[in-house]
Structures are given as structure tokens and as C-alpha cells.
Amino acid sequence: MHTTDKRLLEYRVLYNAGAEHSAINNYHYYMAYSASEALEYHNSCVKKHKTDAQLISIESYNPYSEKWEDCTDHIIEE
Questions:
Q1: What would the pLDDT profile of 12-58 be if each residue is shown by its tens digit?
Q2: What's the rounded mean pLDDT across residues 66-74?
Q3: Is 45 helix (H, G, I), strand (E, B) or coil?
Q4: Would you say 13 and 38 are in contact if contact means Cβ atoms under 8 Å apart?
Q5: Please, which pLDDT band fits residue 74 given cuts at 50, 70 and 90?
Q6: Where are the domains of the chain?
Q7: Among residues 12, 10, 9, which one has the least CA distance to residue 58?
Q8: What percent of the chain lies above the pLDDT cut of 70?
Q9: Of 43, 57, 70, 73, which has the highest C-beta tally within 10 A?
Q10: Single pTM value for the model
Q11: Nearest by Cα to 20 from 53, 57, 47
């Protein structure tokens, strides 16, 4: 599925525990080839632990600018 020209990037998913706990946000960090793949990992983690999570955003770390870049819109478009 993955070709050698792709590389793993660091992604972080900002989420909260849902409407009753919406004031408490958390991050989960993943190494993945794409934001979609990182989100799949996150969703499987949430399902495995039988928790309820509300997605807020997903960001990728740009090692060149040393900043996190929002890629939530890219996930929504897919």
C-alpha cells in the first residue's frame, strides 16, 4: 500500500471526551503516512478502549518549520 517515496510523519489528534466533558481536550500522537491513516489509528484506539471521543482537529508536524499544521480540512474532503 505504501511506496518507498512516502515517509512517516507525526500527527496529533485533538479530541475531547464528548458533550459532558467538552472543556477537557486531549491529544493523541501517531506516526502515519497520512492524516487519514492517523485518524484511522485514533478511531481504532477509541473503539478498542470503548470510549466516546469527539474529534476537534488533526495536525501534522512540519519538521522544517517546526510547527504543527492543521490538516482537518483534508480529512473532511476525503
A1: 999 987 666 667 889 999 999 999 999 999 999 989 988 888 889 99
A2: 91
A3: helix
A4: yes
A5: confident
A6: 22-77
A7: 12
A8: 83
A9: 57
A10: 0.79
A11: 53
Neighbour tally for 59: CB within 10 Å: 19
pLDDT at 60: 96
Whole-angstrom distance between the N-terminal and C-terminal Cα of the chain? 17
Three-state SS letters, 51-78: CCCEEEEEEEEECCCCEEEECHHHHHHC
- Look at the block and give the residue holding cell 476537534: 56
Q: Are 31 and 14 in contact (CB under 8 A)?
A: no
How far, rounded to the nearest angstrom, does the alpha carbon of residue 26 sit from its chain's CA centroid?
Answer: 11
Contact 37, 56 (CB under 8 A): no
**Of the candidates 11, 18, 29, the residue with the CA atom closest to the CA atom of residue 72:** 11
The 3-state DSSP class for residue 4 equals: coil
